[in-house]
Amino acid sequence: MQQRASEDDKTTVSPALTDLFGRRHNYLRISVTERCTYCMPEEGIDLTPGSELLTTDEVARLARLFVSQGVDKIRLTGGEPTVRKDIVELVARLSELRPLGLNHVAMTTNGVALHRKLAALKAAGLDSLNISLDTRDQQKFAAFTRRNGYRQVMLAVKEALRLDFSPIKLNVVVMRGQNDDEVPAFVEMTHDDPLDVRFIEYMPFDGNRWDMRRLVPYRELLKRLHTIYGDDLVPLTLERNHTAKGWKINGYRGQFGFITSMTNMFCYACNRVRLMADGNLKVCLFGNSEVNLRDVLRAPGSTDEEIIRVIEDAVKRKKKAHAGLDILSQLPNRPMIKIGG
């Protein structure tokens, strides 16, 4: 059985980032753009006008405020963050917050345009990568994304390994009848390389054509893998504030895990909040409640204390858990491209 991380291993954060259930939010995910040709729904979406998106200076100021309150990990997301022209500069700006308590700067990316920027991102202070890859099949990749790009993604993975990014995680959204048969092939990617493959249960968001029949519960996938690997399949100790239930195969360099948002939610351990590209703060991925930090930030004479107060009010309104599977798909939510991965 997997072990839960020690309850004594707690992150120190201010009351502003501690909710009414004692959860300490030390992890900030920042969406830096809504643009992504890879993950745009086929029917498209209305993008936020550029003047209403956060500027680099505004992102840096808000990041500094969150770090001052105890955030020690920041992940840049999108859309696709590498399409932002100043993404290397932004990573460097965030890295300047390390003396204030920031320990880790990460990025989630589709990897298509990544490999040419990796060396510069590493030099700017990027620590780790999550790369989205839902299939190992080039034809499926083209069908899923409506463009070719598989070779570029694999080049990015290879280059990230060469540059010693750690960890390097591959995000695989598993969908029945589309790529669930590829789960063993993804596990085999951990044989020779220190990769962390994360199988993500299919989740409902606006524009992704949610269908319960496409959801593959993680226990079903785990049962399939047990039939292949037997006793060589071993569980890993859960990290603090875990999202993935981790496993590895004896003798393999890497590992894999399951993000079970739909069938075995982990709200009790949630330590993350999301700042979206338009400046809205979202305290729960599946919640449709948001608070606008951009307008507070841009108000004449706005002070750090006022912004922190708005953040605290939002965190204090966070619910104990998101809605159950039976009603979650019926609730309105933004498309994932606008929330940030």
From TrEMBL:
Identification of the protein by name: Uncharacterized protein
Organism name: Spiromyces aspiralis
